[in-house]
User: Fold these one by one.
Assistant:
Number 1:
Amino acid sequence: MQQEAEEKSTKQLSADMYYNYEDLHSRPFITPDSEIPESLLHLSHSFGYDSGRRANLQLLDDRTLIFIAGNLIILLDISTKKQRYLHSCSGSGIGSITTHPSKEFFVTAEKGNQPNIIVYEYPSLRPYRILRGGTENAYSFVDFNYDGSLLASVGSAPDYMLTLWNWRQEVMLSCKAISQEVYRISFSLYNPRLLITSGPAHIKFWKMASTFTGLKLQGLMGHFGKTAATDIQGHVELPDGKVVSGSDWGNLLLWDGNAIKAEICRKEGQSCHAGVVQPFSLEDGQLMTIGSDGVVRGWDFESINMVDSDGNSSRFEMEPMNEMVVGHNVCLSSMVKSSLSNSFIWFAQDSNGAIWKLDLSFTYTTPDPECLFSFHAGAIQGLDVSKKSHLMATTALDRSVRVFDFLAKRELTTNRFSQGGTALCWAPPLVSQSGGLLVTGFEDGVVRLLELYDPQRLQEFTGRSPKGGTKLHLKQAFKPHNGPVTAVAYERNGEILATGSSDCTVFFFTVEEKYNPIGFVHVPGPVQGLEWAPHSHSENRLLILCQSGHVVEVQRPDPEAKKLTKTFQLSELPSRSFRFRSIKSHIKREEEISRRKSIKEKKKKERAERWKELMQPDAEQEEEDEEKEDLTPLYIPDPPSPLFCGFYSQPGHFWLSMGGYDAGFLYHCKFSEKQDLDPDKQQDEPFDFLPVHNADDDPICSVTFSSNRQLLFFGMHSGSIRVYPLQPGDQSLISMQAYWALSVHDNQYGHLRHICCSHDDHFVLTTGDDGNIFSFSLLSPEDLQKSLQKKAKVPSPRVGLQNEPLAQDIEDPAAYSIETAKQKLEKDQLHREAELKIAEKRKKLVELRKTFEQLLDSNQNLLQHVRLKPVELQLDHRFGEHADRVKSQQVMEVRKQLGWEMERCHIALTKLQGWFKDSLETSVVTVVAIRTDHKVSTYRLSVYPKPLTQLRHHSTPSQPEGDRAAAPGRRKSRAEPANSSSTVEEEVLRPPLTNATGIKLRDRQIEMLRKAAEKAEQAQAKIEKRKQEWAQFYAEKSDENCEDPRDVQAIQEAKENIGDLKLKSAKDFTVPKHLRVNAERKRAELISLEEKIREKQTEINGRIMALRDSKVCLVSQLRTQAQQLQKVQQRLAVHLRRPPPTLPAILPEEIPEKRLQYRRATLERYHVLREQRFKAMHQEEQEGATSLLEQLEKEMEGQEGKDDDEEAKRGEEWSPILSALSVTREEETPVEEGVELSELEKEVLKEEEIRLLHEQDSLLEQIESSVCQFDAELMQLQHEKLHLDWQLKLADLRQLTLYQELLLLKEFERREDSLQEKLSRHIKEENSITSKLSECNEELEQKQREIARLRERERALTTTFLTVLGENNRFEEFLTKVFKKKVNSVKKKEQTENEEKEVDSDENSDEDDDWGDDDEDYDSSTEEAGAALSDKVCPPGCEQKMFETTLQLRESRLDVEELLAEERRSADLLKKELDDLVKMKKSVEASRQAVEDDLELVNREKQQKMNELDVVVPLRLHQIEFITNASVPPNLSLALVLDRRELDRLQERIKQLQVEKSEQRELYFQARQQHIRLINDRKDMDVKIQMLEKQCNELMMMKYGRLVDLEALQTLSGNRTLEELKQEKLLREAAYAKEIKQWDAKVEEAHQALMEVTKANTERLLSMKNLIDQKRELEHKLNTRQKKMGRQFQDYRRRVDQEEIQRLQELVKTQSQQAELLRREISLLSRKGGNILPPSQALLPPIAPVPTPTDNAHTSKRRPGHPSKQLKP
């Protein structure tokens, strides 16, 4: 992509280059080879507006608006309301539009496969630039930067590609996949290299960076933190880089960096807007926002910019500066500003279907918002045209019904209702001759009859000219359904109206002046459409299409039939049903079978032509079977496919269009003969079908015919319109072949639900789910102007319309439907009849009761023996039981009825008790002494809530737990990559280990290994123990500069206790930190004092109450003793009786709780008094209640007084009783005196008298002592209470002082809390930075260790390579180049491929750069290496193993270098981070010190204010020692108040400090002497340690020859692998020895053969020598004989001899070489481990015999395999 951009950048486009619009824009699709003209339909006008699309409103100049309508761009003139159109170039829709800042260009970003961005020039509307390849499917948003030089675009799913364009040169500067849907993208107005994108639950901040490879994008995702994630529809950047965005809940979010600094809301937590909020501009110091509440508000920019955050996303409250309420039913979604300079005019897009013009100057002369255009909002639910004029009516869920004149291209009228419209039908002329009646269905099930008329024509009837244009008049409203009305249709004769609903019912009405219900039928599913049979059918039936795939045909109901009384359901209405069963899979299967059959036939013919003789029928049969097996199984979709539309073809036959899986066909269906099955279980298949071209994923949503049925119009799911020409009378659609198609509505969501033809077939009208309404003309614009009028005719009003009363509308969605009202009426009628029957029964029962009572009276008057008993009068005991049950039920009902009143009274009583009784913990209880007037009372205490513990024990930790836990987490997270990298290195550098699992060790070896392991473990344990001891020792060792902790603690305690020696009243007094007070501590101190006061009061109250309880027990005890005394004195003589003491009584003030106790008699008395009060004179309610309660209280007190008097009388009854007894005894004495007593009787009487006197005295003493003891306890308690009162008064004074201090501290609380919070934040930040510094230092040290280790690994690899290479290697240079060559590692490639799938696009771009660098290195190294040898192939002569080892070492080296480079980069980053942290720490320390200084100043000021408070200290005169001239001065302001004990302690402390000073001097002298001694001892120990280390090193060198690690040596354990390898070595040595023996035998045999060959060669050499001698002799003889021969023969012979001599010399050289080779072989074989020739090596060739002179002629004819060779001995 970058290469393409570079190639394009080299080709500069000229500024005056334009594209041809006619070559670019999309055109209708026409079936090839058809005669359908391209201009079949002409776009006439667009009546809709896709108001739900984001940013679908732009401004080109001060009078031209531009927006998207399906596949069109509409340029709308505001003043003239004329439209201009631009078709999309892709034919798949338009994604987004925007305008250039200069308004000279505008951009359309399209949809489709690889869509383009087209830049148009304005006002010429010529395509200026085309930007290609920016996304895959569709663009969602485009925007220019501030100066218009760059264009940014964002794609939709699946790539979500963010692209930057140099649009003037059609060059893509950068692209980035962001994996999230984006609502909006914008360039920064203040930094041209910044972008912002926002979308669902995210906002992202982008930065453009220029690199040598081009422009790169780096994104930073915004973090919501504690704020809930929200969709962000809009955002605005502030001049200082902050960003303000909206939210779903109506508040503004202020972003600083990538975090939320504050959430902006209104006062008292109110949201800025109700619903979604979008900031859209920063104008004149105001941040402008819009919301879904239809309000525009301006916020003070300075206040927003100065928002200070505490890091917790706190809320910032402020009120808007200005506000404009556009409307109550307005939802603003985007704003565009007028292009005029210094203009305050804005144009607003309303998601509820409007375009507004707003003046945001916010002055007194600001005009009201102006609605420029109004449209439907959302999908169009209903469309129909007039059968007499060029009028069109539509309805939608926006609760409006609109009527358009599509000939004049204008809207006539709009009516709004309480619910959204869902269906619409224009009444045919048979129903309404004027053609002005509309039937509209709504989502609440209501059907309304609306009359359209021109009010101007009412002047003809009334003589008055009404105001306004065309109007819709409500004629009638009725509710036949409980769900949305989905279809409305008139019967062909106009006598019946049928309505269908999603509640699975179809209702019929008679068409009269007032529509009356006939009845309804139930259908198997929600109704999709209704179609009455045309006039060509003999029977008048209704075809009902259900969304579930059911089709029901019902007979036309008879309006004159007998009306049903209980229900409107037409259960006996004849009907038949059809349930669609999918046959698409069967169709596809048949097509596949036919396709395979044709292919098979074709192949069969080819085989027959080529191989007629090699045909194999069996193989063909197998192929057929395989083909049959490969066929896909039949598929039936579950749930079934939805039914979209259908229409009649002939009686009983109909066509259906299905969606989902069954799309792509028109199915011809008919009703089956079996209609007795359940419709839900019925399965019917179409008997015929028609394929629809390119409709498998684009089903037919709507269908209509022209009036002559020669044109068939289809509305497709993709928003396109299709036109099929038909032959006349073609009911089976056989001629439906060629078609004309045009994409009109949006291809993704603009499903074309409705399509209609005008009454004269000159216009075609379409509506879609995208809210657009288009009108097309079948005539050209010129012919249309000639043949038609300029506007449509509006129907005239009916006669008497103006005199008719307004029809009653149904506005309540919960109103009863017709059937429900009918059922309710029947139910009410049954209820009334039942009530009448019950009344008659009751009347009869009353008469029977009277008769029975008369019988009872007659029976009572009879004689006793004749009278009937009650049991006999009881006819049946079950009557009584039933009566009891009824009575109990009635009692329960009464209780239920009175339950609310009982609960109310109970709650009132509970409240009164809680307010007057429970609010007091203890009331005033006064305990009175018995003999004296002393008394003691309790304290009146209210219920005191327990104070919160956090007020007393509140402490703010310096570092939160989260931070404490975060530091180890950071260390862990940073340490993990190092561990992973080391693991990778180990994996890279670890040599492969051979697994010797097949070797078994002997028992002895296993035992040795076990013992060695145990020994190593013991040694390791000893070493670890020693290390722990040393570690503990070193831990206990103090630093040289360390001080004794006890001294440090003592100094710290002294500092804390001594504090500042200056007085608190001094100006420079510094308050110690532990003595600093704040409001919370002072409040806790105040609460603690209150608790102590309450504790003392509660304690004394408890003792008083215990004394009261003891008095109650004492009174009871005294009464018991008085009764005993009374019994004793009854038996004594009068003169011996002592006067009894007066019994004490419990006074009312001692038991005040009895005042709140009540009895049933009290309640009954209150009830009686209340009734009497009601019967008395009418007074005010409050006064009457008060007097009533007072009267009741007086009566209760009187009753209690009587009770007390009775008790007192009982206590004082002794004297009358005793006197009566004495009188009685005196009266009895004379009688008894006449009887003489014996001496014994007298003695007994005397003894009894003495005993009784003793009992009398004892009882009186006990009573006296008990009373005295009680009075003594009371007096002691009274004295203690007086002392406590004195202490509590002092505590009250202290409490007053504390309260004054608390008020004073509250004044400083805000400043102090702010400073303390800043100090805590700085301390927290400083601690965090310190921890990060330590982490960075640790990581840096670790990185340096890693770098050193990697360097060591690299050197080890180089050493290993040199070892493998060896010396004098002829491939040394080549292998060195291979080893040092820089290539891409295989692991790196795999890692890069994995990272490309996971990491972000920033990392991808960086990795691409790295790969580019590696490629360059690779190319350069390749060029340097040359083309002679390839590093991928082992050169001939080089060992393959060495070459592979070199490649492995190179791979390892590259991995190590890569890790080393990565570690270096990490180390550099850490150093940079360390420097930044050091700077940050210094800055934070300075800030912390400044805050501490400010806090100290605040504490001083606070202390000075507290010193000014007066503290009350009560003193006696003897406590004042501030005396002047032997008298107390009048002014004691200079005096100092001290505690005597504290003063004595200070004086004693002076003496103690003098003693401690002398002791410390002595300790210092001793410590100094010990310090000098320890220094000398340390020097001696250092010398000794050096000598021991030297001795140890010498011993190691003597024993091991080098310095070794003794710990490692001690911990060496048996290595099982090594033992296994040793065992394997022994086994292999034995095998090799055996093999060597075999080879030795073979060598011996070879020696013997060599000896034999040598002997043979020796013999041959001897024979050769003899022959040579003979040759010489013969030559000599020949020379002598041929001296006389001619010169010519001699020359020839000489030449022949020379050649023979040369040949023999060469033969000798060859034989000598062979001999040398044999010698080497013998020497090798004679040595152990020598190279042995493989068995396949051939033996040495035999030596050819020496040729004789006779053989010279045959020398050239010898075989090449047996050359004549000789060896020298």
Number 2:
Amino acid sequence: MDSGDNPSTVRCKLCGEAFSLPEDDLDGNLPRMLLCAHIYCTSCLLSIHCDGVIRCPECEVESTLPEGGVFGLQEDSRIIGLIYTSKMNKMKRCERSKNRKTNKLSPTTDFKANHEDVEQPADVENIKKLVDEALAQAAENLALLDDINETLTNGLAEQVKRERARLEMEIKQAADKALHAVQKWKDVQLSQLTKLEARFSSSQAEVSSVQKRMKALEITMQMAREVRRVPFLEQYCTLDKVLESLQAPVDKQSYNMKDITLGSGMSCVFLSECLNQSLALSLKMEVGVPKQLSDSPPKGNQQSSSSRKSLWQSSKGKNKNCLSPKPDQESPGAHSSSSSRGSSPTPAPRRRSNRSRQSSTSDPGTPDVILEELLIEGKEKALPPTGPELANDNWRINRRRKNQSFGDKRNVTQWVVVSHVVNPSHFYVRYVAEKRESENLSKKINHFCCRDSCRFTSSDTVETGSLIFVKWKEGLWCRATVVEVFQTRCVDSVKTCSVNQLSGIRVFLLDSGVGKSLTIQSEEETTESSLEAVNDHLRKVGEGVKVELGYFAPQAIRCSLKDLVPYDLTKGWSKEAQLEFVSVVGSAAVEMRPLGQDRDTLLVDLRKAPMNQSSDVPISVREYLVFIEVARFYSPVSLGRRPLLYYPPKYPKINTELNAVVSHINNPSDFYIQLVDNMEFVLLSAKLKDCYNATTLAGEDDLNIYCPVIEQACVARYEDKLWYRAQVVGHPGGRKVEVQYVDFGNKKILSVSDLRKIKDEFFALPSRAIHCCLSDVIPLDGKTWSDACSNRFISLAHQKLVTIVATGKVPKSEPLPVKLYESGLNGPLDNIAELLVKDELASFREGLESTDAGNESAIWDPPLELGLSAEDLGAPDQNASGEQSEEFQPQLKLPDQLKDLKVRVSHVNSPGSFYVQFTQNDSQLKRMCELVKKECALMEPEEVVWKADMYCAAHINGVWERGQICSYVSSRDIAEVMRCDHGNKMELHVSNLRPLPSSLTGSLALECTLTDIRPAGGRSTWTATACDLISYYLTGASAVLTIKELTDERPVPVTLFCSNKMGQFISIADFLASEGLALRERKPRDAAIQKSKETDAQSPVSETQTDGPDGEKKQTPTAPSVPPSPSTASLVSTPKPASRTILSAEKVKTGSYLPPELPCLGHIQISVSAIGEDGLIYTRTQNAECQHEQLRERIQQSMKTLPKQKPYTWKSVQGCAVIGPDMLWYRGHLLEVLGGHVKVQYVDYGLVENIPVVHVYPMLLCDDVPQLCMPCQLHSINPVGGRWQRDAVALLKEVLLNRCVDMTVTELPTDPRRPLTVELFLDGLSLSRILCHHEHASMDRTGAAQKEPSVMSPALLLDDWDIDIKDLRGPEEPMLGPFIYPNLPEKGERFQVRVKHLWTPNELFLWPLEGSSDVEVDGETLDEALTRINANITALQRLTNFHHGAPCLAEYSDGKFYRASLIRFSSVEPVMVLVQHVDFGSDDTLPSSRLRQMPAELLRFPSQALKVKVAGFKAPRASRQEDVLPYSPGWSVKAAMDMIDMLHGNITASVLARDPVLTVLLYNEDDELVHLPLVSSGLAEFE
């Protein structure tokens, strides 16, 4: 087959040149296939490729070139086979023609020779040979053709299959989009039918006239009836006129009845045009001359009238255009439409029609909805924009895009003029193409303003959002919308104001984007003067004028430079940025390229003509502002510090019924509720919406957020256009953020422009949404909730009022387990969890069933509905087994420990009298009520003479309780009874009383009084305000109580602590004092001070006990322990000056301060005062904190002067007094004498310091007060290296110091001065886990705490049991040193290397081959040593020490162990360790089970992978590659792959620097730097 047989097959369709194969001297012109399957020659593809992309000339599908460029494209084997076959056939034909010529000559010669000689047999053999060769070649050709045929047949079938699938999918997608567009058009048109009454204005006028006549007639008839009933009323009305009105005839002809027979003139037209491969559908609403309804043609036969007009053009002036279905085909009505519609097929932008052209006929071929437009433009607007909020005017853009090809989907570039600039993210532009239309609009507005109908009258009002005319300058009026209205004698703005009282107004000019404030001032305070002042600046817009102006869309379009944020995010846009933006754009036309839309803003880039005449590249305004460093491109940021967070929500009390609303539901284990306990949130929400709606309407940008941070608190706009408090929780990508509304719980992805900074006033209240889960139920499959269950749960609870009961306490990071009940008028109804189980959508947890019966028996007394919290049930004081064996006590028995007792306040009379119940007695209280009910419920009423102080059984609220008679009124049979177990008093009828057995008499409530305070105002009794306040906050509240003095008298003096909204424990006495309702009680001097007074009255110095040499105690004069106060100075004699003598060192002995009072086992709240260098944590309880404040005041008051300084021997001194750096007195404990300094520990803080001797005194301060701080050690944790390192102590100080944290006491020491074994929790997170995560410690998996040595000698115990412990402990793991590294040549010397691992293109691991390869130690190489060790790997111990950089053996994926070093712990549960293979440079994350202790002999081999930095290049500043290295985003994956390819072969290196990082240069085989190709291809840049 020759090329001439089918020239179209072997010729390029683009250039017409024939394809050719490469020859010896020529490159050839091979056919190559694009991604769209179109084929072109190599020369054409080389000429049309641009930036690695080729757009097909035939279908315009873009093909991305592979790595080899055009030559990397797939060659078309079919055409190459045809060319090759044609070439071979041509060669064969040439050989045959030569053979024919030879054969023609041979017979003649032979014939002549026959006469002379016999015929030669050699010629016959030659012919046979040629025939055989031709047959063999034909067989080969036939086989080749069979192979080509099979390949083409299979390829054709696969190609047809693939294309059919692709086209089917595209056809379905296109049809779905078309259906969606039609449905949307339908919905919009149906919604507009609500305005249909406006089309029948004449009929409405007639109806109004008739109704007015009917109303007047009814009033007249009523008057006539009243006159007929009361004749003398005739004098109050004109009877003749009444009769005339009643008798006036009704002329039916005077009312226009024909209007009701007319239609609206509107019709829906459907046009379709089906071509060979395209379908054009048109749906259009037309407005024509109204016709009688009976004369309307059938719907399917309505023809478009030339006088008809689009509904939206008649109402809003919108002009819709269509795009041609093909690039070379115009719209159906392009030639028949009038010039006023501007339907010229040229792509130049067209002006909108003005009022003078409105009477022109419309073209029925320009439909309202064109499916091709919707597929390109996306979301279509039903109405034209009426204000600046719709900046992306689709109608405006569509009109410019009418005649663009359907396949061109790029945004259209427009020429605009910047009319007003607020900042680079908020400015307004006007299209240059609309200049003529803008002039027409200005003339029309000025014409309207000259009319008297546009002047304001005294009856007119101005309201926010209305359209008015504003005088811009003399003779020039502009249309504007009202933003704010100010009324005379009103400070704040109002929504509506009468013109007469208008004092100021702020408007937004629609056609320039400028906001303007006007002050209305009149010379005289009269109505005429006010109207004149208003009309001098403003004009009103009537309905008719508004309709005419509706044909003109706003000229100013709000824009924002895409992805541009202020350079300093904290300060926002600077004045410099605004000025630079204004200066660069100027007043000349600039090129605007739309890049997207964000709500009411068009995201664009502006390009200005170059300032340099030699360059024709336009200047990008975005890049210019970034270059001069007044702006930067958007990217999510992360702050070094944690952003300010909302207060956590206030969780409900355990086992308390509360009303709530379920605000958001994900599933039964993940939903949010809002408690309906107060109105503060309602007021906050209303205030927030008003504040931010006003800010948005005014266009203020001060609160804009440009780069949100994860966990940042903000205010976000929801779908209802209102603002709510939110928190940023994610960055989905682009200019989007994911937020969670903290008061509702739901999450939503929003644009950054929908966020605002939150003001401080909205931080006051905590988050309202409480994260909850249904307790006691799980999914049916035990893993995930089904959609049916979630939907059923939503139908039962979402946005409904429910009753909730919290069932336990959990950390704040976990959902709160609650029970939900449907709320009814008479209380809770069904349990929602049980409804889900009944519907077989969920199941109870193992061992749990319906809880109805349990609830009925559990709620046995309304005052005790609080029940027991999980924390109380688990308290160490409340041992279940102990209670069962313990004898029942009807009378309250106080615990031995009188501090930090957990109580519940049952009744409050005043701060001096209130009752508490101990939570540890809850079970006894319940049992008491059951016994009283058992004894008295069945007793019949008896005639009992009830007297005061008698015990009784009282039936209160359906429950039998113990009571005590307070007073009895015989006439009414009403007795006042005090509830013994609660404290409050009630009046009951005697029928509700029964005699109480003496075995049950007693009380479980303790009457208490607050100490250290007294009533304010000099009163002896508490005010009603103080009583009401403390009753409001304390009744039913849980608290911590400390009994100050235990006596038989009641009330008992106590201190009481309760938690506030922040979860902090505060003293109730301090709270009352801070509220001004109480005063601090004046305390008498302590005994020590009184004693010092008595001794000081006799002698100016007191005596101190000292030990003499013989051990006897003797009295030694020393400085007074406490100097006299000013109030008692007159009672103390003045000290006489001492004689000058040289004093020898005085022997002094002081004891230690009392040990701290240890808390009980269990959970308490403490504050951390100090961290020791040995890792001990010094803490104080809440009670100790209160005592500490009092102790400080007491010490400072007692030590007003310095004691006399003497030389002392500090050997026997333990407790002492210290003057701190702040010149205040502190209690201390002497640890060590260091020359002129002593090491002292502050006993109330735990801090250790070296203090000069002159600041330490051997005396005890307030020795009756025990040490306030307790040393604590962490439970079940081992510090790295056996002792706490400095960085670990620094971390402890950072997270603990001066913080109030939760602590669980796990073990008490035998010596109260020794450390407690505890567990600390920070916001629910264990401190031990934090330390393990930071690799400062490891968990002791045995669960045993590090205990102090027992008092009894372990050796004695072992001797008694005769236990041999010699070989119980395994060998300790040796601490190995670091790996050694090979010696490298001097700087500048070349040496061969082998690259082991590449981290980034300029950071890699290599190994020098010269002088260091195959190093032998004891005649063995590293590979041989590893092979030997792997053969007996089971003999090696597992790794136990995990310090950073420790050598070890790590198992690789091939099952063998290699040398490695530890980097860090990558996870705690499960434990995973990140290691680095030192001989390869690669990292691996392994469990500890795949790590072994490394034999020390392997350290003698140098590591075979050195980490180096390759000098000379770096990552590009702007990469065009989409795929980047996740651990180093500056480098692209392509750059790394190309660098790997370039590092194959012989690579040499030279050292540039050794410190701080080993830096080298790498060369390839041609002695060129290996990174040069990366720089030339744009994947890197020179350093």
